[in-house]
Amino acid sequence: MNYTVSQLLTQDITFQPIEIKGWVRTFRANRFIALNDGSTINNIQCVVDFENTHEDLLKRITTGAAVHIKGDLVESQGKGQTVEIQVSSIEILGDSDPEDYPIQPKKHTFEFLRENAHLRTRTNTFSAVMRIKSNLSFAVHKYFTENGFYNMHTPLITASDAEGAGETFRVSTLDPKNPPLNEDGTVNFEEDFFGKETNLTVSGQLEAETYAMSLGKVYTFGPTFRAENSNTTRHLAEFWMIEPEVAFMDLAGNMDLAEDFMKSVLKYILEHNREDLEFLEKRLQDEEKTKPQAERSEMSLIEKIRFVVDNNYKRVSYTEAIDILKNSKPNKKKKFKYIIEEWGADLQSEHERFLVEKHFKCPVILFDYPANIKAFYMRLNEDGKTVRAMDILFPGIGEMVGGSQREERLEVLKEKMKALDIPEEELWWYLDLRKYGTAVHSGFGLGFERLVMFATGMGNIRDVIPYPRTPQNAEF
Ligand code: 4AD
Ligand code: MG
To answer: What is the residue extent of each domain of the chain?
Structure first.
């Protein structure tokens, strides 16, 4: 019978003839194959005791080769594993040139593996990351489904720029060398494929709001595109965002939902990816040892995850946060790159990380931001200068979630759009929601890859997505 490595290592099936297919990780002493098939971080040891007449075959058992093995599962004679396969026959399904196979059994740098991203999931680190990511994705759908949410697919091609930051990728079939022009020399997008200027979506929120105002609780989980030229370890030009949207829910309910959701999905991987997490934890501990004592993390990976699953997030208003930052040591000693001088300043990631990692030492939910540093759709507070926004900040990551209670009052929303030069004709359907049965509603967006970074301890967002899209880079 055909088995996976995971089945062989966890089920009680010793002394049975078995078959297995996988890739050779190493072949030692012309006798021991470490075989992996992706089903688990662990390899199974396959013992080859062939006569010397099989020399040609043995030569072809090289790192990276695909093989089909038949044999018996027996209790292991050696240390390090409980069972092993006593091989009776081995077929090489695909050779691997031992000279130039990039994934040699040694330590590779992440930079090198990024250049070989098509092969990097053949390493323990990347296969562990992707198994965790897959389970996290499942946990996301599980959480929302079990809590009465409907999944919806919002369009990827749209004519709106929900966040208003102007960081969109244009979608067009016009000839860039010879576009049709208006009389004033501007491009005539009426002749473009959709009859108007369109772009890839920066958020599914606006469309999700339309469904929340009929189905009650909805969420989208899909690709999102941002043409921001930020070459950081936390930004991608193409990433996946989870966006729930709920009718009749205010900002406090939004915070409760986000916190409960984060805890639930992280708990799921603690329960279902133990071995992968233990492997990544060990990897991180080795990496930490190379850092100066003062910079080393006090908690291990699993402790960090457990911490945010078990502890309440600190809820702090923007105004309180500014006070803390103004009086903080790095601000007074001018250690911050951007010194906080007055209320209204936009928070940079150095400030967010100070609050989370040095001051509160736990995830922080900041709320009630100044209206003028946030998007047009957020609900204006009674003070007339702050909006019902919230950001969730995580240790090591900074901003994980951005959300808000939405402006449900037609006149206030119209005024806001006017002030920001957003034409009403463009968002007539969005304004309709405020005309017909408007109600308090809220939602948030979570950058899925940032969540995966936190869950795996990976330091660069490029290492938690199969083929990262970043400025100057769209390989594979
Ligand atoms: O804070 P943002 O821009 O919020 C929105 O787009 C809202 N429409 C969400 C909503 O209320 N429905 O983005 C939400 C999250 C951020 O907190 C961050 O985790 C992630 O998306 N994100 C990115 N992740 C990777 N690369 C980028 N370039 C990202 N930009 C935002
Ligand atoms: Mg944000």
So the answer is: 2-101, 122-167+202-463
